[in-house]
Amino acid sequence: MLEGKFEESSLMKKVVDAIKDSVKLCNFNCTEHGVTVQAVDDSRVLLISLLIGEASFEEYRCDRNITLGIDLESFNKIIKNGNSSDFLTLIAEDSPDNVLIIFEDKKKDRVSEYSLKLMDLDSDFLQIDDMEFDATITMPSSEFAKITRDLKTLSESLQIIVTKENVKFSSDGDFGTGNVVLKGFVDMDKPDESIKIDMARPINLTFGAKYIADIVKGTSLSESVTIKLADKSPALFEYKLPSGFLRFYLAPKFDE
Amino acid sequence: TPIQNDLTEFYNII
User: Which of chain A's residues have a Cβ under 8 Å away from the Cβ of B10?
Assistant: First the structure.
């Protein structure tokens, strides 16, 4: 049996918001260590890897591994009904047909209970080995979201170029070009505002702007985002959770 | 125009 209680429903709301536009159906795999999701978008260009660790829950128990096949659009309709500050409890039997979603208001004696029908989902699982990356950038997630939104207005592609001194985000479209250059710096008072660039080898990669626009929907999960890049390889974009992470793996574009 | 790659070109499906 699964019984997981969050101190606030806001974390699950943000997680669903962050992934629902990339994948529609996915299995939530529940183990004694927490909840994991691995799902690929329909075009197989973007992969989501989520870990909500046991410590993200106020109370958590999962005696046996349980798979919850969830339609995220339906789940989102229910999860939106709770207030962000409500306790959120997920309950499922060992071989469940549905999952119970319970919101409890902390001040009033109000308990809202919903049941979501589960689906039997076949899903491809991609084996991602630990990769060596040539460059790692950690920056404020809101800044990365703004750069993505701004440059996406010019072109379908977004180029990320990393040199020893800086990282350049660049787009080249029909009516014009744009780029944003960031240098590494340390903000002692607000560490999350810092920009860290670690580079072993220079990088020049091009990505589909619409996929990066989907990735930045994870912005509300974390103050900072870490971008890991390797030549001619998928990039990793990571938002850390209090215990766990939301990672996006994005295949690059290559010149013919 | 650059061509979009598929993740399965990099990772194995299991």
Answer: 233-234, 251
